[in-house]
Amino acid sequence: MAEDAAMPTGIDSHIPNAARMYNYFLGGKDNFPTDREAAERVLTIAPEVRELARQNRAFLCRAVRHLVAEAGIRQFVDIGAGLPTQGNVHEVAAEVDPGTQVAYVDNDPVVLSHARALLSSTTNTVAVPGDLRDPEAILDDPELNSLIDFTEPVAILLVAVLHFISDSDKPDELIGRLRDAVPRGSYLVLSHATAEERSDIAHQAAEVYRDANMNVSLRSRERILGMFDGFELVEPGLVREDEWRPDQETLAGPAGRATPTWLLCGIGRSM
User: Fold this and answer.
1) What is the mean pLDDT of residues 219-243?
2) What is the mean pLDDT of residues 257-265?
3) Do the Cβ atoms of 27 and 48 come closer than 8 Å?
4) CB-based contact 265:192 (threshold 8 Å)
5) E-assigned strands of 65-186?
6) Is the Cα torsion angle 234, 236, 242, 247 positive or negative in sign?
7) Cα(first)–Cα(last) distance of the chain, in Å?
8) Numbers of helices and strands, H then E, in the chain
9) In 3D, which of 157, 199, 146, 2 has the Cα closest to residue 68?
10) Predicted local confidence at residue 129, as pLDDT
11) How many CB atoms lie within 10 A of CB 24?
């Protein structure tokens, strides 16, 4: 992303951004020098982050395929969607059913600009502004409601976003408000950072985000499990991302538990 390229208003290219850092970890080009500098600081502390970013994306793809092919879900709301990359939700879902409807939600103007450009010739998708800390505004968005029917089951995707929500914002209540807005049989897809395996390294890396004014909350397994209140966990439950129904590509990755993780994930079905 060139520094002199046209950008949406309100973007400060001198402040690191979590979505653009994630894009850099995945090998993308939609980032600025300050994002790359912050990302490299994280990689100096924890080189495994590139692999963890790849695992997070792979989990998202497997989760979407499962929900479309096996659970019969045809509507997705991806909150904190991040910058478009390979294996976007609508592309993965369309491999099973091209009629699947996907709404992308993000509070970053860069993300929305790129998403709308990508989706300009795509049907059954929208990209709308929204912040997880204000779920009602997301649920009431007219463009989102023109595509998503909240009387039918919906999959809410909160993938690698909740650890950027502080306890003072009451993340469990935010999830509960989303859960109460969708019918029984809807799903929650969640991945979340934890310090379970590498506490010292995870906390050091989180400090890089905090130095860039991005709070990261490294929550325990028990705390993350509590976020599924009102949902029945789909097997295999809350696990490492490389342990959630791994496919051949996942199994071909680092052997055993060679890559320490700070990400746990799961899918829950509303009861």
Assistant:
1) 97
2) 78
3) no
4) yes
5) 75-79, 101-106, 125-129, 155-159
6) negative
7) 44
8) 11, 8
9) 157
10) 97
11) 25
Report whether 250 contacts 223 (CB < 8 A): no
- pTM here? 0.91
Task: Give the C-alpha separation, 136 to 32, whole Å.
Answer: 32
Given a cut of 50, is residue 213 above it in pLDDT?
yes
State how far Cα 139 lies from the chain centre: 18
Rounded CA separation 17/11 (Å): 10
Report yes or no: 93 and 76 within 8 Å, Cβ to Cβ: yes
Q: Whose CA is closest to 219, among 160, 270, 259?
A: 160
With a cut of 50, say whether residue 8 has pLDDT above it. no
For residue range 41-80, what is the model confidence (pLDDT) as tens digits?
999 999 999 999 999 999 999 999 999 999 999 999 999 9
The closest alpha carbon to 210, from 264, 158, 163, 160, belongs to 163
E-state strands within the chain: 75-79, 101-106, 125-129, 155-159, 187-193, 231-233, 239-240, 263-270
> What is the rounded CA–CA span in Å between residue 19 and residue 242?
22
Say how far apart CA 233 and CA 159 lie, in whole Å.
16
Tell the residue number behind the tokens 């609508």, with chain if given.
90
| Residues 213, 15 contacting (CB under 8 angstroms) | yes
**Whole-angstrom distance, CA of residue 208 vs CA of residue 36:** 12
Tokens representing residue 228 in the block: 């599924």
Instruction: Tell me the C-alpha to C-alpha distance, in Å, between residue 32 and each of 14, 37, 99, 207.
Output: 8, 9, 35, 20
Q: Would the pLDDT of 159 be above 50?
A: yes
